[in-house]
Amino acid sequence: MVPGFTTTSFSAHDKTREVFCRGAGPAVIVMAEVPGITPLVAKFASTVADAGFAVFMPQLFGTSNRVESRGYVLRVIARVCISREFKVLAANESSPIVDWLRALARHAHEQCGGRGVGAVGMCLTGNFALAMMLNAPIIAPVVSQPALPFPFNERLRSALHASPQELAAAHEKIDHQGARILGLRFKGDPVCRAARFASLRKEFGDAFEAIEIEDRFANPKGSQPPHSVLTRHLIDAEGEPTRAALDRTLTFLRDQLQAP
């Protein structure tokens, strides 16, 4: 249960998961970062809903509305690493769980209508938003500090965790449906390196908008080094670069999804 959200369930590919819903308008899939739907992730999802969108937030891992701790984070990462639904070292293919997320996006579009669906992925789910552009109506992917594949060597640091077919689908939507891609990261993030955003720029050119924030502007109350632009390292105050990144995320979703 997540306060302020309606709890539903969605089944696809022989898997049923809880989905937490809030708001009305064009659909946006909000995918949690590790360790799951924490109160800070729920707060971000509420902000998206209150900005005029129907948020669908699936329970992908962890326990809903549980406050994170170091031990909790490590346990969730360990479970993800051995799960068949995630391929944390895959450079040129996405994780199997993306098929379920695509089905959820199609369902959300049927429910809400409109030009298409937005998707916000963070950390472990960051590049899922990009891969979901294949066989789903995603036209507004936000890749926030995309962490997969885990950057254990130079090749993995620049990889996009997406197959050639998924990249081709993204190009098709950019060329014919006006899709764009927004990326967010802290410049010193050791999990989402500059090389990954360089690959996104090389692949998508002007269709990829990057927001890269100096580490000194991260919320000092969050863990170090800074990583989570929209949640634990956000300083929600006017004039703060992380607040500007949040505001740009909402504007990006409006520009892409709401009717002119």
Describe the global form. Answer: globular
On the 0-100 scale, what is the average pLDDT? 97
Main pleated-sheet profile: 8 strands, mixed
Order of helices and strands: EEEHEHHEHEHHEHEH
Number of domains: 1
Helix-residue proportion: 25-40%
Question: Secondary-structure blueprint of this entry?
Answer:
Layout: E1 6-12, E2 15-22, E3 27-31, H1 39-50, E4 54-58, H2 70-82, H3 97-112, E5 117-122, H4 128-131, E6 138-144, H5 154-158, H6 164-177, E7 181-186, H7 194-204, E8 208-213, H8 241-257
Parallel strand pairs: 3-4, 3-5, 5-6, 6-7, 7-8
Antiparallel strand pairs: 1-2, 2-4
Description:
It is a single chain. With 260 residues, the chain is an alpha/beta fold. The protein has one domain: Rossmann fold, CATH 3.40.50. Helix content is 35%, strand content 19%. It is built from eight helices and eight strands. Strands 1-2-4-3-5-6-7-8 form an eight-stranded mixed β-sheet, sandwiched between helices. The model has no long low-confidence stretch (mean pLDDT 97).
List keywords for this structure.
8 helices; Rossmann fold; 8-stranded mixed sheet; 260 residues; 8 strands; globular; alpha/beta
Give the structure's gist in a few sentences.
With 260 residues, the chain is α/β, with parallel strands linked by helices. The chain has one domain: Alpha/Beta hydrolase fold, catalytic domain (Rossmann fold), CATH 3.40.50.1820.
